[in-house]
From TrEMBL:
<dbReference type="InterPro" id="IPR029510">
    <property type="entry name" value="Ald_DH_CS_GLU"/>
</dbReference>
<dbReference type="InterPro" id="IPR016160">
    <property type="entry name" value="Ald_DH_CS_CYS"/>
</dbReference>
<feature type="active site">
    <location>
        <position position="250"/>
    </location>
</feature>
<dbReference type="InterPro" id="IPR016163">
    <property type="entry name" value="Ald_DH_C"/>
</dbReference>
<comment type="similarity">
    <text>Belongs to the aldehyde dehydrogenase family.</text>
</comment>
<dbReference type="Pfam" id="PF00171">
    <property type="entry name" value="Aldedh"/>
</dbReference>
<feature type="domain" description="Aldehyde dehydrogenase">
    <location>
        <begin position="12"/>
        <end position="478"/>
    </location>
</feature>
<dbReference type="InterPro" id="IPR015590">
    <property type="entry name" value="Aldehyde_DH_dom"/>
</dbReference>
<dbReference type="InterPro" id="IPR016162">
    <property type="entry name" value="Ald_DH_N"/>
</dbReference>
<keyword id="KW-0560">Oxidoreductase</keyword>
<protein>
    <submittedName>
        <fullName>Aldehyde dehydrogenase</fullName>
    </submittedName>
</protein>
<dbReference type="InterPro" id="IPR016161">
    <property type="entry name" value="Ald_DH/histidinol_DH"/>
</dbReference>
Length: 493
C-alpha cells in the first residue's frame, strides 16, 4: 500500500507518535493507503511553522506580484498533474472519474484567478472630516489560516480556501477529512515544487476529535474555513468564538429543485438527475427535494424514474460509470437508515430503496440504489434533514406561492433551482428564494468567479469570487496629522 507522510514546515514527516491509519477504497471496501495519525504535537508543529513563515523569512518579504506568480505556477503544476490527482481522489472517495477529472482540470483557474488578484488588493484614501488629517486604509492578512475540508471533493474545497488565503498573504494549515487525505498530501508535493517558502502551506492528517479541535482551539490560529456538516460547523463556530477567530462555514443543504408546468421538460429531467444522482447525492448543493407542479407531477416523476433506472453503476474509475459508491461506511449506513425513516413516515418508494447488488458493483463496495420517494410531505424528516446520498423526495405543488412556501420551509438555504420559460417568474422566484445560490434552467454550476455560500443554517461567509478574499483580510485605518501644533490633549479630536 501507498504510505504517506505529513507536510510540515517544508518537511515530510511522520506523525510525532508514529501512528498511522488506513484509507479505504469505497469501490472495493479495502484499504489502499496508510495515512499519518496526527495529534496535538503535530498540530502545534504545523501552526508554529505557519506562524514563523508568516512573521519571518521570505514570505512576508515577497511583493504581492511575487505571491501571484507562485500561485499561477501552482496552477500550472495542478494542470500538468490533473489526471494523476483525479485518479487518487476517485480511489479515495469513489466519485466518478469523469467528474473528478473535470474538477482537477478546472481547479487551476482558482490559482490563476487569485494569483492575478494578489496585487490588486487596494485600500482607499478617505476625505475625512477632520482638518489637517490625512486618512487611508490598508487591507492586511490575518495570519495563520486553517482549512478543514470534506471528503466529497477534497482539492476543489481546498482551492476555495487556500487560493484566496495565500493571495491575501496569509499562511495555511490544511486538515483534510480522515476518509480522503491522500490527494491533499499529493497536492502538497506540487506546492513544494512550485517554490513556496517552507511553512507557508502545511498538511496535518488525522481524526477530527483529535486534531480538528486542536486546530480550532489553537491560540495562534486567526481563521478557520470549514466545509462539512451543520453539526460540526456549529461546534467549530462555538469553539472558535472563544478566542474570537474569524470563520467561514459552508455547511449542509436541503435544496429545493422546482419544476413548473411550462418548463422544457427534457432539460428539466436531466437537471434533476444531475442534481441528485450524478455525484451519488454526495454534494451539499444536491437538489434533494423535488417540487413539481401538480399538473405534470405524475408524468414528470415517471420520466425521472425511467431515466434513473438506466444509470450504470460500477467502478468509478471507468468512464462509462454513472453512479459510483458512497464514500464512507458511516455515510452508507446513514443513507440506508434515512431510507428506512422515509418508508416509516409513509412515503412511497418508486425506485431503489436499498443497497445495490450485482456483478457491476463488486463484493465490498458501498453502493446504494438511486432512490426516489413520492407522497412526501415537507414536514417529513426525509424532506427536512440532509441525507447526503442518492435519495430524492418528490413533493407536488399547485402554484408559485405554494412552491415558494415549501421551498423556503427549511432550516437550510445553500442552493435552489427552478425550471420555467416565464421571465417574470424568473425574476420573482430568484428574489424570493432563500438560498445563497439560485440556478434557473440549469443546476449544479460552480465558478471560481461567483460567490458560494449559504443562508440560515447553511453557513457563514462566502467562498469564490471577489467576496471571498475579504474573508482573509483585515482593515487598518491610518491617520496622519499635518498640523503644526497639537490641540488640547484632554479633548478628543
Amino acid at each position: 500500500m501507498q504510505s504517506y507522510k505529513m507536510f510540515i514546515g517544508g518537511q515530510w514527516v511522520d506523525a510525532a507518535g508514529g501512528e498511522q491509519f488506513e484509507s479505504q477504497n469505497p469501490f472495493t471496501g479495502k484499504p489502499w493507503a496508510m495515512i499519518p495519525r496526527g495529534r496535538q504535537t503535530d498540530v502545534d508543529q504545523a501552526v508554529l511553522a505557519a506562524k514563523s513563515a508568516f512573521t519571518t523569512g521570505p514570505w512576508p518579504q515577497l511583493t504581492p506580484s511575487d505571491r501571484g506568480h507562485l500561485l499561477r505556477r501552482l496552477g500550472d503544476l495542478i494542470a500538468e498533474n490533473a489526471d494523476m490527482l483525479a485518479r487518487i481522489e476517485v480511489t479515495d472517495n469513489g466519485k466518478l472519474i469523469n467528474e473528478m477529472a473535470f474538477q482537477l482540470r478546472y481547479i487551476p483557474q482558482w490559482y490563476y484567478y487569485f494569483g492575478g488578484l494578489a496585487d490588486k488588493i487596494q485600500g482607499a484614501v478617505i476625505p475625512i472630516d477632520k482638518p489637517q488629517t490625512f486618512n487611508f486604509t490598508r487591507h492586511e492578512p490575518l495570519g495563520v489560516c486553517v482549512g478543514i475540508t470534506a471528503w466529497n471533493s477534497p482539492l476543489l474545497l481546498l482551492a476555495y480556501k487556500l487560493a484566496p488565503a495565500l493571495a491575501a498573504g496569509n499562511t495555511f494549515v490544511a486538515k483534510p477529512s480522515e476518509f480522503t487525505s491522500a490527494s491533499t498530501l499529493e497536492f502538497a508535493k506540487l506546492v513544494e515544487k512550485a517554490g513556496f517558502p517552507a511553512g507557508v502551506f502545511n498538511v496535518v492528517t488525522g481524526f477530527g476529535n483529535e486534531i480538528g479541535d486542536a486546530l480550532t482551539c489553537h491560540p495562534d490560529v486567526a481563521k478557520i474555513a470549514f466545509t462539512g456538516s451543520e453539526n460540526t460547523g456549529r461546534h467549530i463556530g462555538q469553539v472558535a468564538a472563544r478566542t474570537f477567530k474569524k470563520v467561514t462555514l459552508e455547511l449542509g443543504g436541503k435544496s429545493p429543485h422546482i419544476v413548473f408546468d411550462d418548463a422544457e421538460i427534457d432539460n428539466a429531467v436531466k437537471g434533476v438527475i444531475s442534481g441528485i444522482f450524478a455525484a451519488t447525492g454526495q454534494t451539499c448543493i444536491a437538489g434533494s427535494r423535488l417540487l413539481v407542479q401538480r399538473s405534470i407531477h405524475d408524468r414528470f416523476v415517471e420520466r425521472i424514474v425511467e431515466f434513473a433506472k438506466r444509470a450504470k453503476k460500477g467502478d468509478p474509475l471507468l468512464t462509462g460509470t454513472q453512479v459510483g459508491p458512497v464514500t464512507t461506511p458511516p455515510q452508507y449506513r446513514k443513507i440506508l437508515e434515512y431510507i428506512g425513516v422515509a418508508k416509516g413516515e409513509g412515503a412511497t418508494c418508486v425506485l431503489g430503496g436499498g443497497p445495490a447488488s450485482g456483478p457491476e458493483v463488486g463484493d465490498g463496495g458501498y453502493f446504494v440504489e438511486p432512490t426516489i420517494f413520492t407522497g412526501v410531505r415537507n414536514e417529513m424528516r426525509i424532506a427536512q434533514e440532509e441525507v447526503f446520498g442518492p435519495v430524492l423526495a418528490c413533493i407536488p405543488f399547485d402554484d408559485e406561492e405554494e412552491a415558494l412556501r415549501i421551498a423556503n420551509d427549511t432550516t437550510y438555504g445553500l442552493a435552489a433551482g427552478f425550471w420555467t420559460r416565464d421571465i417574470r417568474r424568473v425574476l420573482r422566484m430568484s428574489e424570493r428564494l432563500q438560498a445563497g445560490t439560485v440556478w434557473v434552467n440549469t443546476y449544479r454550476v460552480i465558478s471560481y468567479l461567483s460567490p458560494l455560500g449559504g443562508y440560515k443554517h447553511s453557513g457563514i461567509g462566502r467562498e469564490n469570487g471577489l467576496d471571498s478574499i475579504q474573508n482573509y483580510l483585515q482593515t487598518k485605518s491610518v491617520m496622519i496629522s499635518t498640523a503644526e501644533d497639537v490641540a488640547d490633549p484632554f479633548v478628543m479630536r
